[in-house]
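Dear Dr. H.,

I hope your travels went smoothly. While you were away I took the liberty of generating a structure for the chain from your last submission, since the lab meeting agenda had it listed for discussion. I wanted you to have the full record in hand beforehand rather than looking at slides cold. The sequence, exactly as received, is reproduced here:
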Amino acid sequence: MLLELERVSFAYPAPAGRRAFALSDVSLELAGGEMVGVIGPNSSGKTTLIRLVARVLEPATGEIRLDGVPVRRFARTDLARRVGVVPQSAPAECPFNVGELVLMGRYPHGPGRYFESRHDRAAARAAMEATGVLELADLPFDHLSGGERQRAFIARALAQEPRLLVLDEPTAHLDLRYQVE
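The corresponding predicted structure, in token form, is as follows:
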């Protein structure tokens, strides 16, 4: 299995020492090559689930495994080579141009160097072509529309060449044309 969640629970702090469970006893198995959507109402734990898989949060109980290995055992860069995450929304300010942002997806692949290999540049270019942002590569990220920002973040995740790609509401800011694509 590519991704396994076994009886995972997570609770955010709540007043008076109580626990407000965002997720309770969730189990899931995903094989490679699958496309799966998690659907639910607002505040049902979808983003929390993504943050647990990416190890931004740690589960209160249960275990999350990637290729049979608990995610807690991966160094952050090793996990970033394997899991690409597209957040719900892009930051309001980003001091980079689109091409630089997309190249950042290659960072986990190159300890001791900064985006210098031909493969890094080719992966970034292919990701920008796939998401339709290649013509925006030299533009400051701050000058982009919401949909263009979202496509740039999708390109960054694709440039990582991860085994698992996790997208949190990836079509939220996209024009209908790009939602369909």
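Two observations you may find useful: The chain is about 30% helix and 20% strand. Helices lie at 46-53, 76-82, 98-103, 118-131, 146-159, 176-180.

With kind regards,
E. W.
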